[in-house]
Amino acid sequence: MDWLIFGLPGNENLATQLSEQLQIPCGAATIRHFPDGESYVRILSDVQNKNVLLVMTLDHPDDKLLPLYFFTLAAREQGVRKIGLVAPYLAYMRQDKLFHQGEAVTSGFFAHLLSQLADWIVTIDPHLHRRASMSEIYTVPVTVLHAAHLISKWIKDNVKNALIVGPDSESEQWVKEVAREADVPYIVLEKVRKGDRQVEIKVPDVSRWKDHRPVLVDDIISTARTMAITIQHLIQAGFHKPICVGVHPIFAGNAFEELKAAGAEKIISCDTIPHASNGISVSTLLLPELLSMTRDKK
Which domains are seen in the chain, by residue range? Predict the structure, then answer.
């Protein structure tokens, strides 16, 4: 069965990489906005009786969801067989509990909507906190890949005498895996969140690690407040300027500049979201899974 791959706006580079690696041609489409802000979607390639891979990372999801919705419905109308969504970053995973009466628990709502658009989804390190698995909220198959190995390799290749620093207890299992594969020690901080941009950090006794280069590792870098405060604590404790590594570089507002100003020596991210900090490609992580899917799914 023929396949086409479409990189929706902002995702063209990753789609091109995957197209070359999978030997699947890129489809052509026009997606833009009218002057009044409404979306215009036109699929130029013939998708009838074909399977389609859509590459769209879902940062800023409110801006991206309608074009994705319109594209998938247009493709269905034109006779597409199956649609696979490659979303390296998957949004609306953190709002997974009712804290106040009347709140929308949007992780479930968003999952319900995406499950109607795609036949299957591939993503990288979604923020599973109170959920044990994606199947709790998604009704289509969701393949979850993990970037720990890529980050470990980057640290091993680029940082001498590293000490991995995790932001909080939730990250310990993930950070421990990165440290194990990189064959370096790690520590985990205590974090108390007091608001969207207010956190309190408690750093354990780190005197025994003074000769190490701290590498702060997190899955999502959003406001970067935790990393910025941690950098200041570590520098005050006599460490070298830390290196910051993240899977998903959201960098809300001026977070990237604030992280540099806090004293980060280097900021590196996976290219799950296009950003100037991208230094770790996820295409090699996606490739084996997509090869299997495009060969097996008819």
Answer: 3-146+282-296 (3.40.50.2020), 148-280 (3.40.50.2020)
